[in-house]
Amino acid sequence: MKIAIVHTDFSVKGGAENVIFWLCEDLAEKRNHKVTLFCTDFKDWKEKFEKIKGLKLKVIQIPKYLIDSKFFKMIFAGIYLKNELRNFDVINIHNFPASLWVGIANIISGKKLPKIIWSCNEPPRFLYKKHCNLNTPSNLEVLHEDLNENLEIKYSSKIKYVFKELYKPLLKYIDRKSVRKFYKILTLSNFVKNQVEHIYENNKVVTCYTGVKDIDTGNISNHKTGQEYFLTISRLETCKNIQNIVESFSRIKENKQFDKIKYNIIGKGPLENYLRNMILKNNLNDTVFLLGYVSREELLSYYKNCLAVIYLPYDEPFGLPYLEAAYFSKPSIASNHGGPAELVINGKTGLLVSPSDINEISNAIKTISKDKDAAEIMGNNANKFLKEKFLWEMYINRFLTQIQ
Q: Can you tell me the distance from the alpha carbon of 55 to that of 341, in angstroms, rounded to the nearest whole number?
């Protein structure tokens, strides 16, 4: 098959970007499909993608004078893709606004593009807040740059968002009109499937859980420090809720029974300075560690040697870290709603807590710290659950079945 994969850009290093990389690798190199990957900027990923045999890379060239205008950038990308996508068998879109770009391309081509499959991580939150932010505190619904040092929305940002509301109806109209013409929508979880069905009134929606790639665990090193630690892998932004986990460790440290437990955070993002100040303010320099980005080998070593993974975002559509933790037979402390509640079984493969409740988070950390045997049992159960439906080969078979 000739497959076009369309993504916005690779400016961040997140789970979605990893899945696209693995997908290109599998389809082009392993299964010999003719795959072309479109985006506006490959950033640091370009060298990695260039190593995939049989994969073509195409940059959607946006004129510099349009870069800062999301609306005109959207229109230009649609016009560009209208001609570029004609000769493929399948168009596979990842992430908004790529879905909007391809939707516009399809509309202005007279609906003459090949069948369009949207791999929907989640609908655009800023357009459909009442569907997508059911559990997210209102001050965390905005970009980090719109918050002050106390994570409260700036007055100037409130005014800006009033003006943004003016063009939302137009964007919603274009978005819904575009998506309703798609051949099929593949969602990461039932949670996202329900959102998509309500927003777009579309019955061509299928849950297609992604999976974890095989990992050679035998060559992964053990940490020599012997310290027990919890682990978070995440982009550092407010909706990922790392600030509440740090606050929980501040409370736990007051109890000498747990004062040797460490917390490692892997990732970067706009919340980094806020977290650094929080660590200093709460005297957590010897407890909480911001590690930034690490190599794949280091990341796997951190997974292998942790007590458990903690990942507590609001309204999270999926949660790849839970599955990677399960690969290493580690339990997870997860959000009690959204995609995480489908990936972690409370009391069996991990613990589900309210991401807003510091006491619940603290108690879950204490539970795993105190009862290592129970944690090991949950980790082993997580590994069994993973092997039932969350391995990469299972995902790629589900994906190919849906696009053919």
A: 35
**What residue type is 63 in one-letter code?**
P
Residues 6+ positions from 87 with CB-CB distance below 8 Å: 2
**Whole-number pLDDT of residue 244:** 96
- Fold entry, domain 217-390: Rossmann fold (3.40.50)
Facing residues of 288 across strands?
263
At which residue do the structure tokens 């061509």 appear? 204
Compute CA distances 153 → 124, 142, 241, 316, whole Å: 20, 8, 16, 21
Q: What is the DSSP letter of 213?
A: P
Asked if residue 381 lies in contact with residue 228, where contact means CB atoms within 8 angstroms, the answer is no
* CA end-to-end span of the chain: 9
pLDDT of 265 over the 90 cut? yes
Judge whether 2-207 and 217-390 match in fold: yes
DSSP string, 9-42: ---S--HHHHHHHHHHIIIIIIS--EEEEEES--
Confidence of residue 110 (pLDDT cuts 50, 70, 90): confident
CATH class, domain 2-207, is: alpha beta
Q: Where are the domains of the chain?
A: 2-207, 217-390
Closest CA to 116 of 145, 148, 78: 78
Q: How far is CA 45 from CA 34, 197, 330, in A?
A: 20, 33, 29
Q: Using an 8 Å Cβ cutoff, are 232 and 311 in contact?
A: yes
**Residues contacting 269, CB < 8 A, separation 6+:** 12, 144, 234, 235, 236, 237, 240
